TrEMBL record:
Name used for this protein in its record: HTH-type transcriptional regulator DmlR
Organism (species): Pseudomonas reidholzensis
Gene that this polypeptide is encoded by: dmlR1
Family matches, as PANTHER family: HTH-TYPE TRANSCRIPTIONAL ACTIVATOR TTDR-RELATED, HTH-TYPE TRANSCRIPTIONAL REGULATOR
Pfam family, one: HTH_1
GO term, biological process aspect, one: DNA-templated transcription
Domain HTH lysR-type intervals: 15-70
Length: 313
């Protein structure tokens, strides 16, 4: 978290001490924290001692080789980060576009979208705004944005929580496809209902019931209960099985466009698709954050027209 250029932090001794405390915890070093903030090692020790006296607890265990935070320090660190984040939020609301994006961005996304698209786009974002720090966590499940302390959750599909703000950053849909070897052996299903006779590769989507596929076709929305001998909660595994000819997969067009173009996968029941737009989800509190808004605008631009844009069919 980079708050050292904040006039509020610089002019308030307690906030400066909280920033120093947070930086030491992040760097696990008095010397490294002092170097980052432009403070001498002797002054670092003096300010930590003063903060410990103010809070009435020991914040760090210190030896000649390492610094580790205490259990009481861990509890105080949560408060320190909250206070500093609130100060930054106030400044961002007040200064708006005049404030350069800075601080930590915590972002969650699914494995394949995160690995092949979000991660390289965030690298470009970091080059443009070097005062940003980025933490990206890849999870094939829906995250609890507030409880797990994420700034942005990149989701595919519907967003139903009323206490969150969803911004669509790319249009997409899911389709059915399989390897030519599987279709040569088992044949093409002629109707959605015939999927019950096929091996379907089941992936526990972040927002869908396990084994229930809902797709839109000529007759509107249809639902089919699918089964198969192979299932996983990891998208990379299911995609690998699809390429090896073990069954039919439902996946986003951007995720299979290259495989279809190269003939490794073939579309199944092309009249059917499932809306699966990509959204960036934030809390209501984060709506006015400069760093978050800059990130959302950058993601939207790059996912639609950049080097790592999502491909369609």
């Amino acid at each position: 978290m980079e708050n050292q250029n904040s006039p509020v932090v610089n002019n308030d001794p307690f906030l400066r001490d909280l920033l120093l405390f947070s930086t030491i915890a992040k760097r696990a070093s008095f010397i490294a924290a002092g170097a980052e903030l432009g403070i001498s090692p002797a002054h670092v020790s003096k300010r930590v001692a003063a903060l410990e006296e103010t809070l009435g607890c020991k914040l760090f265990n210190r030896t000649t080789r390492r610094v580790s935070i205490t259990s009481e320090g861990e509890a105080m660190l949560v408060w320190a980060k909250t206070i500093l984040d609130n100060v930054n939020g106030m400044l961002e609301t007040s200064l708006g576009d005049r404030l350069e994006p800075r601080g930590t961005l915590r972002i969650s996304a699914s494995h394949r979208l995160g690995r092949f698209h979000i991660a390289p786009i965030l690298a470009l974002l970091r080059k443009r705004y070097p005062k940003l720090e980025v933490w990206l966590e890849l999870l094939d499940r829906r995250t609890d944005l507030i409880a797990e302390n994420f700034d942005i959750d990149i989701r595919v599909g519907e967003v139903n929580e009323q206490n969150l703000i969803a911004r669509r950053i790319a249009d997409s849909q899911r389709i059915l496809c399989a390897a030519p070897s599987y279709l040569a052996e088992r044949g093409q299903p002629a109707t959605l209902a015939e999927l019950t006779l096929h091996d379907c590769l089941l992936f526990r989507e972040r927002e869908q019931r396990f084994g229930v596929w809902r797709l839109h076709g000529g007759n509107g929305l249809e639902t089919v209960k699918v089964t198969g001998p192979m299932a996983s909660n990891h998208s990379e595994v299911v995609h690998g099985w699809a390429h090896e000819g073990f069954g039919i997969i439902m996946a986003s067009t951007w995720d299979v466009a290259t495989s279809i173009a190269e003939g490794k996968l073939v579309r199944v029941l092309p009249a059917y698709q499932q809306p699966a737009n990509v959204s960036a989800v934030t809390s209501v509190r984060a709506a006015g954050s400069v760093k978050i808004n800059v990130c959302l605008e950058f993601l939207t631009a790059q996912l639609n027209a950049g080097a790592y844009a999502l491909k369609g069919l």
